[in-house]
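Hi there, hope your week has been kind to you so far. No rush at all, and the record is pasted right below.
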Amino acid sequence: MPNAYFAIERPANDPFLGYLPGSAERAELKKELDRQSSQVVKIPLIINGEEIYTEKTIKVTMPHDHNHVIAECCMAGEKELKLAIESALAAKEAWENMPWEHRSAIFLKAADCITGSYRKVLNASTMLGQSKTVFQAEIDIAELADFLRFGVWSAQEIFKQQPASSDGIWNRQDYRPLEGFICAISPFNFTSIGGNLPTAPAIVGNVALWKPSSTAVLSNYYYMKLLMHCGLPKGVINFIPSSGSDVSKYVLSDPRLAGFHFTGSTGVFQGVWKRVGENIASYHCYPRLVGETGGKDYIFAHNTAEIDPLCAAIVRGSFEYQGQKCSACSRVFIPKSIWPEAEKKIKEQVASLKVGNVQEFDTFMGAVIDKASFETCKGFIDRAKSASDCEIIAGGSYDDSKGWFIQPTVIRCNSPFYESMVQEIFGPIVSIYVYDDDKLDETMHICDTASPYALTGAIFAQDRQVIAKMEKALRNSSGNFYINDKCTGAVVGQQPFGGARASGTNDKAGTMLNMLRWVSAHAVKEAFSPSSAVVYPYMSEK
């Protein structure tokens, strides 16, 4: 190793491109969209750096045009999953012993590629495969680069944390990767999260198996290919599209499982926790379980709130990316005194939103991800139409003839405990409860306790005493809290993201809090002048 200390400066967030009419990036992206939409990509497993094609495959379609196939993805079974485990463990020693500056270089190079030549590829595949608009895809891909850069920097900052020493003693702390392998299961809604889940542990020397979501597998595959292009050694991350049941049976039960990195539903994460608990005596080490799960995110308005920013936050926070963000606004509390004005503006704004093909750049909202999601949203809408204690005041229609389209829908609920006010929907449906102005405290308590989740929340008020009061009352209701802003849009390095309660372990992706979960501290004491004495001075009688 060179006799030098390699310092990594704190990164700056990657700026978003505008894709304005006539811009070069708009023209390049449209060309890439045409290219990708005109082909069907055969997606293999990638195990030990080798592409493996299996007989079991699934078709990948555009959510906004569900008869349009853009990829065919191979699926791993028992044989391939066990091979992936063994190849990861075979790569482990060389990987964790690679000099830190060389490991870092791989991920820093990947970040530069993401913000450079690969940007259009990842943006286009995210738009087509996950039905994201150009802006939603852009912020997603920029975040992926941020995750890599802040991940490397966060690891460096952890390594710098060293214990105190005394005269004749040198104390130091080594941060080892975990013993075994990491299993990463990623969601469909963010390419950035998919990319971060296996790479965060890898940055600090772990090896990982990565099961991507079948509905985000195209963009995830391109990212995996990028990592290999940037020098990721064979076996360090194995790309294994597969069924959840097979992963549970063959991966989570392996005694060498060291950690589980997850973003997805609360039910799945609880099932994994249970599975690990059932197998706890068989593991070589206690597996680290890190998860960001469900949410029932809210906006809570006080009667001093400014109407225009409040309504804009509700509409954007609820309907950007079809409400399929973990942080999306799903319930709103508004006082009676400002409701008439707010209702008028919300209705006008929702009516103006274009829903359709994300390849058309004037589209605000695409389709929900798949048939199951469509049916879930449809069920909530249909039940609201027939319920006596709520009414649909905007939207309420749906159409699956071409794509999985749900119109942005606003439900006014007479009870804060109506199902759409407390249950996670993960679609473009927001429920509003109008409360009596003099019942602020009571309503905040309901907001805090009616749902088991605690991911994101926002308050709107102008009175500073009220803001302080609301922040205190709702302190434990979210992991990310916003004052006079929408409850979405956390930026890596600025608003560390994650929630508690049924929303996850709150380990804040992209920060030292998350990276610490993937290392095992090793304290070393070296005595420069070791004592030869056995008897202590205090034992003398003279």
In short: The mean pLDDT is 97. Residues 25-38+77-293+506-525 form a domain with the Aldehyde Dehydrogenase; Chain A, domain 1 fold (CATH 3.40.605.10). The longest strand covers residues 65-74.
